[in-house]
Every structure is written in C-alpha cells, then in structure tokens.
Amino acid sequence: MNQKAVLITGCSSGIGLALAVRLAKDEKKRFMVYATMRNLAKRGALEKAAGCTLGSTLEIKQLDVCDENSIKACLDSLPMRRVDILIMHLCRNAEMGMIGPIECQTIDEMKSVLDTDFFGLVRLLKEILPDMKKRKSGHIVVISNVMGIQGILFNDIYAASKFAVEGFCESLAVQALRFNLNISLIEPGPVITEFERKVYEEGVKIDLSKADKVTADMFTNIYLKNYNQIFQSLGQTPEDVAEHTFKMITMTNPPFRHQINHLCTPMTNLKYSDPNGDLPIETFYKMVFEHDKVFKTSLNFLKLLCWRSHKDKNSS
After folding, report:
1. Active-site position among 34, 158, 223, 227
2. Which of 73, 136, 211, 295 is within CB 3.0–4.6 Å of 216 for a Cys-Cys bond?
3. CB 310, CB 192: distance < 8 Å
C-alpha cells in the first residue's frame, strides 16, 4: 500500500502535535506526515514526541496560514505538491484573550481571529483543492468545535469563526462530491491544552472599563468563575481528539460531521429540536442565571462520570 501524504497545520503543541504523532506512529505506516507550524523555533516538543518517526514517517515544515507565500513554499517542498489528506487545526492567538465582552475587544483583534481560523483554511484550500479535484481523490479534515453549531456566552468571535468554517465546509462538500472528495468536520467540546490555560490567564487581565457593570460582573463572576470547572468536567485530551481523527481518516465512507464529546451532545441537540432557535438560548439563560446551583452540581456530576470512565478504561 502506498503511503498517503498528510499535511497537518498547527503542530507545535496541543491537538496538532497529538495528531501528527498519532499518524506518524501508525503501526502499518500508512501515512507520510508533514507536520507544520508557523514558528519552527517551537518544534522541540514535537521532535521529542515524534521520537524515531522523525525523518521517517514525519517531517516538520514551516507554514503560516496567514501568508500565501509561506503556503506556496511549503507545498512546493512536497513531492509533486501532493496532499492526500489535509488536516486543518486552526486556532486563534491565545495571547489576544478572545473571550469576553466585545466592547473590550478591538476590531483588529477580531479580524486576526477570522484571518487565522477562517481565511487560513480558505488560503490553504485554494492551493490544495485544484490538485485533489484533478486526481479525484482526497480527504479534507477540519478540526472544528461544537461552538460551530451552538454559540457560547462570551465566545462571540470564536463562535463566529467556527460558524464561518462550518458554513464554508457545508457548501464546499456539495461540490466535493462531484470530484469524489471527502470533507469531514471533527467537533470536540472543550479540549484541555496549554492554549486554553493561556486564554483563561489573558481573560483575567482584560480591561473591563468599557463594559457596563452588569456585563463586567457577568464575565467575571459567572463566566471566568466557572471556566476551569467546565474544562475539568467536559474537557477532552488532545490525544482523544487525535484518536477520533485517526478513525475518521481510515474509514471507507467518513461522515461529514462527527461530534466526539457525548457530554456536549445534549447542548447541540437543543438547537436541532427547535426550528425557531429559542430553546437553546432560553435554556442556557436559565442555567446560568436562574438555576446556577443546579448547573454547578451538574458539572461536578459530569466530572465524576468522566473520572469513573477513565478509571474503568485504565483498569480494563
């Protein structure tokens, strides 16, 4: 079996790193992984995790999805510019702290999020898609988020970027069928990474002087106060996301949309249950402002279920 060329973005840490290592260490050696990152100075963690696969089934390359010249240079360095599987893991710059009231965020910061999360995907596909169409073969996998389906309090811009990605991919998927191409959206919930820790730390530092008192209090005493507990209760590991993605790209007929955190399913099902869209909004409002004690108790219960599930897996 010929190796498939897999290009993965955002591999310096977190999900991207876990994906690159998982595919490179495939026992059947079905993949030649091109793990990319914007700053090659941050390649140390990936090199260590890759071990003996480095230089064998894994190569590290520079790629900035916000720079068309960087994209072209990266693809030009690949044999015949061929990409069989493109795995897009794009995330906003954590140092911008893109959570919080929009009154406290600049338009330039918002544009930067969309420039990476959405236009980064578009730029890369403009270069890769024509060859896939010509060969009538290829799989485009986008690591999205449940926030591409259901918006979450104080994640307005992040949700907007994920909604844009999901809408773009849904539209493109119709065209892709004509060329025998697969497009898949992987939709995790919260993922526990260093990135999320930095987002929280920057969120704590946000200057809330431009927000009204009610909004500022809501962000500080409701959102930030529950941030860590939500991740501890609902969070997945990058390795879990990588394993789900591995299964997706080895399927004969991969689905278009794949939610991989069953604890988040009730949240997204609310949206599909009500064509008017009122049900999820009203439900979240009541959870946050009217039944906050029940909400916190539920998070603790979910945390216990996750702990028991991991314990059972490790003991089996």
Report:
1. 158
2. 211
3. no
pLDDT at 300: 54
Q: For residue 303, which amino acid is it?
A: K
158 noted as active-site residue: yes
The two tokens of residue 289 are 């402002």
Cα dihedral 99→104→108→110 (10° resolution): 30
Question: pTM of the predicted model, to two decimals?
Answer: 0.88
Report the C-alpha gap between 70 and 242 in whole angstroms. Answer: 26
The answer to whether the CB of 153 falls within 8 A of the CB of 275 is: no
Q: Which residue has the higher pLDDT, 225 or 19?
A: 19
Tens digits of residue pLDDT in 30-89: 999 999 999 999 999 999 999 999 999 999 999 999 999 999 999 999 999 999 999 998
pLDDT for the residue 191? 86
User: Three-class SS string for the chain?
Assistant: CCCEEEEECCCCCHHHHHHHHHHHCCCCCCEEEEEEECCHHHCHHHHHHHHHHECCCEEEEECCCCCHHHHHHHHHCCHHHCCCEEEECCCCCHHHCCCCCHHHCCHHHHHHHHHHHCHHHHHHHHHHHHHHHHHCCCEEEEECCHHHCCCCCCCHHHHHHHHHHHHHHHHHHHHHHHCCCEEEEEECCCECCHHHHHHHHHHHCCCCCCCCHHHHHHHHHHHHHHHHHHHHHHCECHHHHHHHHHHHHCCCCCCCEEECCHHHHHHHHHHHHCCCCHHHHHHHHHHHHHCHHHHHHHHHHHHHHHHHHHHHHHHC
In this predicted structure, the answer to whether residue 137 has a pLDDT above a threshold of 60 is yes
How many angstroms separate the CA atoms of 194 and 84, rounded? 30
Report pLDDT digits (tens) over 306-316: 545 455 555 55
Distance CA(171)–CA(178), nearest Å, equals 13
